[in-house]
Structures are given as structure tokens and as C-alpha cells.
Amino acid sequence: MEGGGAQYNPRTVEEVFRDFKGRRAGMIKALTTDVEEFYQQCDPEKENLCLYGFPSEQWEVNLPAEEVPPELPEPALGINFARDGMQEKDWLSLVAVHSDAWLLSVAFYFGARFGFDKADRKRLFNMINDLPTIFEVVTGTAKKQTKEKSSVSNHSSNKSKSNSKARESLAKYPKASQPKDEEEGLEEDEEEHGETLCGACGENYASDEFWICCDVCEKWFHGKCVKITPARAEHIKQYKCPSCSNKRARP
User: Is pTM beyond 0.85 here?
Assistant: First the structure.
């Protein structure tokens, strides 16, 4: 598979984990911010198609590798055939589950190939397990789990209602630029929402980065992931993420 990592062989736990994260980021992109393009490429009229994620954080829909056995484990075949036979949300969730399985198989293929021992395999799994799965990112399960955890430490009755706007405002500016009397509130906000995940890349919330919330699906995104700047956000009355915008546009 050209570009699929056949010529790239990570040999340490850290290198395999970086490979895993890159492929994972590419596949999350396909199923979230690039979902319209991904949907169009998965034409049921075509032959068996697979979704590939690459270490470079790119993705590709293509036919399976021709060589037998393949250089790397192959993703699920024929994801395009089910596209029009089920609800889009369910179809994307199904692709996400198979993508999670493929990522694990690739990671532990490298582990077996380069002789990882029990301790290495356990360390690799723990590093992978600290990240939400693609399925959790795509379905919003990761966000729900974060909300449940943060609600335990929520001492303000008004905070849940004003949370999204306040957090967006705080996220626009680094902590250093906040007046001293606002720093405590910012620290509380970061502590409460530190486990919130970007709907595009799956990475954690950070107070020194600009974030924006979709008013439709209520998922949070790094501004850089959805190409929205703080200046542009000031003029947006109701923000729709790429996925929600595409769903509305599609007949």
C-alpha cells in the first residue's frame, strides 16, 4: 500500500505509539472534519474499499493491498457496501469500531515483529489505552464520560449553563494575559475541563489554545483543527462544525 507505512518500521515502544497516534489522527479526521469527502469516496458501486490511516496523520480510501500476505494487517474490507444501507451515524460508528481494531492490530504487529517483551507490550497498551478510541470520539462517548467526571467537581449551579461561552472566552487568551482576579476561575475551568477532547484530533483541552464549540452537536474543537481563528469566531453567531454543516447540506 503506497504511503501506508510499508517502508516505515517503528522499532521502539515510543515509535510504535507515535505511529499509532498518527494513523489514529488521520482516521479521526476522515470520520469527523473530512466526513463529507470520506462519504463521497465510499461509493457502494465501487469494489471492496478500505479506510487507511497513515503515520503522517493523513487518510485514504482505497482498494486493499494486492500482495499476499500484506506488509501490514489490512483494515476491514468493503466499508463502502454498507454506506447506503444504514443511517449515516451508525455507518460511521461501525467504520470507527473497525478502525480501532485495525490500529491495535498494526501496533501489536510491530510489537511482535520487533520482539517486544511482556513489559513492552503492557506499556504500549497502557499508552494506547490512555487515548479515547476512534469510536468514542466519533460517537461523542468520550465527551459524555468527561462531562460525568467534571460534574462531580462542579460547585456552581450557574456554571453548567454558562460553561460553553465562558470556556470559549477563556480559551481565546493565554493564562498569562488574564488579570489576577480571573486566574483562579481559569484554573478551576482548566481543572474541570482538562479531559475534554477535540472532536477532530481527539487531543485534550488546554487553556492556552483557542477552542470553539459546535452549537449543533455540542462537540469542542481546536480552532486550528477546523480552521477558525478567534477573530473569525467573534463574528459567528451560531457555529456548526464541518460534520454538522455537511449533514445539513446533504439531501
Answer: no
